[in-house]
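User: Predict the structure for this protein chain, please.
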Amino acid sequence: MRLLIVEDEERLGPLLARGLRREGCAVDLTQDGTTGLAFARIHTYDLVVLDRDLPGLHGDVLCSELQQLDPIPRILMLTASGTVDDRVEGLGLGADDYLAKPFAFRELIARIRALTRRPLQVTPTLLVRGDLTLDQARRTVTRGGRVVQLRPRELAVLEELLRADGAPLSAEQLLARAWDANADPFSNPVRQTVQRLRKALGEPSPIQTIPGVGYVVP
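Assistant: Here is the predicted structure, written as structure tokens:
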């Protein structure tokens, strides 16, 4: 899952980014609305965590601009103003959810998970291919009834492969979906992660390589 955080508070933004990365998300962080819009136009995000009061480009304007993208990302709006009128106005701008500051990090995670379980194309909570099952809600993987322990990045790559429903994904597609903008493509992070993932899942590997195309779970 790839997220964009647009938050100008110097301590809160990096704190949210670190916490979400520990949850297995690929996270890009910007601190003003203008840069946030530039990132959103370059990359495809599952969800944008958007502070309402932003320098450069106000969060309300950025929220409206995000509605013009294809695909339109989910938007979770953050604000120090938590009145009913503020919430109604934020949702009216196109936000999918609204969270007033201060908030508990675990509530933020729960809201993000709830929103991304309801994408524009509805996907089931359980992703199943053969004897391999990934529970998107619980963030757990089993194969043949055996629980498989995965690192967050390995889980993110497997989730993207299973969501593809038998279609191959290139290394570039996986890099764009499971890593943030700071990833070094020349270090072959996708190949290294797939190797670790195959080892964790065991033989025979459910992940096949299609030369010149990418990876697939058929």
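Residues 117 and 123 are 7 Å apart (CA to CA).
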